[in-house]
Amino acid sequence: MINDGMLVLNDNACTQSQRTLIVLGAPRGGTSMVAGVLHHLGVYMGSDLLPTFEDPSLSTLMLQGRDEELKQAIIDRNQTHSDWGWKFPGQSVLEVLPKISGELRNPYFLVIYRDIFAIANRNSISAYGDLFENMKSALNYYTELGEFLASNKSPAMLISYEKVMLNPEVFVEKLRMFLGMGHEHQSNTIAFIEPNKPAYLRATDNRCNGFIDRVGAGYVAGWAYSKNQSLPVMVDVEVNGHLVQSVLADQYRSDVQTIVKHPNGKVGFKCALPPKCQLKPGDEIRVLIQTDSERKEINRSPWIFNEP
Predict the structure, then answer these.
(1) Cα 107–chain centre separation
(2) Which terminal CB of the chain, N or C, has fewer other CB atoms within 10 Å?
(3) Of the given ranges (15-19, 48-52, 134-138, 301-305), which has the lowest mean pLDDT?
């Protein structure tokens, strides 16, 4: 018997359509890889996807406890897509699943497991966290995840991250068969799988973090912060490759303070653009955090302006 690092649970409950594919796993534990594979296989994973293949709109509703709005968003996607997927790593999604189970249509769970030390070390590098505390957090999460899976009656595929990296062809083939999909996207999906993608490393470097919330013809708004300093950070706003304004991200944002556990919540910014730099459809906007050694681009940057 060969251990290929994959196991299907509850396959007697499998259906071939009208499904919600939910990716579960520890933060820095391989969920972005699985979600990216689904995306490359043609599964709708959301709009305005981050480099981690996470849909910010659903994640925001969940983290802010806006359960009724989250339920309605799920209903809307059920009406629009035969199959669709959702990825959010960590404990929060396990806590919200019982609240939204009535709206989830034929849920399939894709559950990725990764070496505990690799998870903890990745978190230590990207967020300056304590290695052993990170290992403890990952172990506690996997315990809760195991309890969830033991009581779950829906189809689930358990996946070893390390085995996928050794043999991505086997993983994509097994996943394709589990979901009843064709071969048309298989080669591109296999080529997608590789460790340490630069876009992923930039997106998960939480020593500095930020997000573009809104863009109008005359402004760019969002939030940004750095774990290296308690004071607000300066952000640069570029239009079509040219720096047009630098502003301090010092506006209070209670929502961000709750989500990222920021000490004072002074992370928001709204940059008014000079009259000569008013945006036109097709303009590219980039927002970058200034640090001592480099500038780090925030999430949803670059943003292509499409409003008239």
Answers:
(1) 19
(2) N
(3) 48-52
CATH of domain 6-203: 3.40.50.300
Q: Is 56 helix (H, G, I), strand (E, B) or coil?
A: helix
Q: How far apart are CA 168 and CA 155, in angstroms?
A: 22
How many Å apart are CA 236 and CA 49, to the nearest integer? 22
d(CA 201, CA 51): 9
Domain ranges of the chain: 6-203, 208-304
Model confidence pLDDT, tens digit, residues 208-237: 688 888 899 999 999 998 877 778 999 999
What is the distance between the alpha carbons of residues 304 and 281, in angstroms, rounded to a whole number? 8
**Distant-in-sequence, close-in-space partners of 289: CB < 8 Å, separation ≥ 6:** 208, 210, 224, 226, 233, 234, 235, 295, 296, 297, 298
Q: How many CB atoms lie within 10 A of CB 184?
A: 10
